[in-house]
Amino acid sequence: MQRYGSVIGVNDEKKAAYIRLHADVWPDILAMITACNIRNYSIFLREPENLLFSYFEYHGSDFAADMAKMAADPRTQEWWSVCMPCQAPLETRATGEWWASTREVFHHD
């Protein structure tokens, strides 16, 4: 199992819409997350900075293939088209990232 954390901004004027979307995530999206070996997935909101922190655990054996599977799914693409306008990617993110990856510096079970 591998833990992943990432960060992105949320547009203040779209924050309420983003929260509503995630209060009732489409069942197809939840099924795809599970099918791609992602477990224990959470998104946290830090206010007043309007930062979202995402955490999940990957339980598969080919992260790149599972992420490609998710990205190719038409329903996931539709979900992203609704969520992405609410988000404000960090200028400091790596090339090719939407959510900026983070480095784990501590963990305790």
List the helices and strands and how they pair.
Layout: E1 2-10, H1 15-23, H2 27-35, E2 38-46, E3 51-58, H3 63-72, H4 74-83, E4 87-88, E5 100-101
How many strand elements?
5
User: Terminal Cα separation, in Å?
Assistant: 13 Å
Output the structural class. alpha+beta
CATH superfamily: Dimeric alpha+beta barrel
Provide a count of the helices.
Answer: 4
Helix/strand order: EHHEEHHEE
What is the CATH top level name? Alpha Beta
Residue-averaged pLDDT, rounded?
98
Beta fraction of the residues?
25-35%
Q: Provide the low-confidence segments as ranges.
A: none
Over all CA atoms, what is the radius of gyration?
14 Å
Name the overall outline: globular
The biggest beta sheet reads: 5 strands, antiparallel
Portion in helices: 25-40%
Describe this structure in words.
The protein is α+β, with helices and mostly antiparallel strands and 109 residues long. The protein has one domain (2-101): Alpha-Beta Plaits (2-Layer Sandwich), CATH 3.30.70. Helix content is 35%, strand content 28%. It is built from 4 helices and 5 strands. Strands 1, 2, 3, 4 and 5 form a 5-stranded antiparallel beta sheet that branches. The radius of gyration is 14 Å and the shape is globular. The protein starts with a strand and ends in an 8-residue tail after the last strand. The model has no long low-confidence stretch (mean pLDDT 98).
